[in-house]
Amino acid sequence: MKKYRTIYLLITLMFTLGFNSCEKEDAEIEFDTIPVANEALDIRPTEFRISWQPIFRSSGYQLDVSLDETFSTFVSGYNSKSINGFQEIITDLSNNTRYFYRVRGLLNGVPTENSNVVSVVTRFIPDEVITLKSSASNFFVGVAVNPDRIADSQYMEVYEREFNSVTAENAMKMANIITGIDAMMNISYDWSKADAIVDYAEEKGMNIHGHALIWHESVPNALTNFTGTDAQFEAIVEDYITTTVTRYKDKVDSWDVVNEAIIDNSTSLRASIFRQKMGENYLEKCFQFARNADPNVKLFYNDYNMVTDPLKRSGALREIDKLIASNLLDGVGYQMHINIENPSEAEMQTATNELVSRNVLIHYSELDVRTNLNGQSTTFTEQRSFAQSDKVREVTRVYNSIPDANKYALTLWGLKDDDSWITPRFNVLDWPLLFDNEFGKKEAYSGFIEGLQ
Ligand code: XIL
Question: Is the CB of 170 under 6 A from ligand 1?
Fold first, then answer.
């Protein structure tokens, strides 16, 4: 009796399995009778590549491309266009335009039903009259410069045409301004480089962002080797901040007061010389010195990896919240040294929302987008150029989503690729900026403007 029951169970099991697999096959055949159109690839200003999943026993395909989703009209040459393969490059299109496509198979010469409809927007080419600054409403578009560039007329022409804000790449850092501290604790200064940038920008009516009063990577030897007391150290820092901010009062519009105070992958303050000698609340002290020197200048905290490193961001936000509570902070700079893969647009949005909810000014302060991630490439390929453009477009799209009252500036960390700090600093070839070495506008330039449309 038990034996029959086992046989019965086995037969039932086989029947069930067999039946199910038949059902699955049926479903596949049905699915296969209509092609599935894939998302477009290699999207360019005037063309894109489409493909679809082939169907069983098809003798060919018919392709429709249209400007409207209902296919009431067709792009010339793409009304039931016969195609033998499984892909097609659609050419001669208009830039920045939405197209729709669908495809049918042919079974014994008879068209199947239409595939899904896929929509795609061709890339944007800005017209000649658009510039970076004219495409940005309610915020400045800035660039980091070095004073030796002021003599380069071609450079300055592009700089004035495209930008309305400036940051000194190095000239306003402490180690480049302080030349010594004598036994009486008098500081000696060299203002020549900082003045050159400020004077030029003032003459051209540009916004000037001061960068940076306190940065652990720019400590003059005289301060590193300082042997006085902590109180004396603090007095020198106060003197420096007061003198510098006062000198540029009514000229410099905003200052990064403290730059990069938080350790990577951590919420802790870096054990910089300032932290060591002035204590846990050195940020508040420095911001207060700056505020005392010029109550009108906007005061910023600035740091890198604020999008990709949530721990570090939460450490920085802790400091930012303290400064807000003491009424000492106007804005925050996210540096935005990023790459073509990271961060995602959603991550940028999340990190930016943290600042919007705190109602501070937001500066994307040092944008550059690395492309040579494994360090192996020796040329800037077209593919990487478009990937870079996509990432820049995401950056400006997120920036543009900020309420006007919280927008401040979006600053590129250099004008053309061979200006960039990336190659000397990381010892790797790269092309991280919006202009090539001949001042030509790169795809990323178009991406920047496209994100602001
Ligand atoms: C960099 C400059 O671009 C380099 O020329 C210099 O040698 C080092 O500093 N974060 C900052 C900037 O806040 O000041 C740094 O600038 C890049 C990283």
Answer: yes
**Known catalytic residue: 234?**
no
The whole-number pLDDT of residue 32 equals: 66
Closest CA to 35 of 101, 118, 88, 113: 113
The residue with tokens 């927007």 is 121
Exposure of 260 in the CB half-sphere (CA atoms within 13 A):
16
**Which residue has tokens 């604020």?**
306
Binding site membership of 368 for ligand 1 (Cβ less than 6 Å): no
Helices within 357-421 (DSSP H only): 382-400
Give the model's pLDDT for residue 4.
Answer: 55
Taking the centre of ligand 1 as the mean of its atom positions, its distance from the CA of residue 257, in whole angstroms, is 15
Amino acid at 175: A
C-alpha span between 288 and 320 (Å, rounded)? 14
140-450 shares the fold of 36-121: no
CA distance 65 to 115: 12
Superfamily (CATH) of domain 36-121 = Immunoglobulins (2.60.40.10)
Q: Are 240 and 232 in contact (CB under 8 A)?
A: no
Architecture of domain 140-450: Alpha-Beta Barrel (3.20)
Cα 88 versus chain centre, distance: 32
Residue 140 backbone dihedrals phi, psi, to 5 degrees: -90, 150
Tell which one of 149, 255, 366 to mutate to probe ligand 1, the residue whose CB is within 8 A of the most ligand atoms: 366
Q: Locate the domains of the chain by residue range.
A: 36-121, 140-450
Is the pLDDT confidence value at 15 over 70?
no
Residue 18 has pLDDT above 50, yes or no: no
Q: Which of 366, 394, 443, 450 is catalytic?
A: 366
Q: How far is CA 220 from the centre of its chain?
A: 31
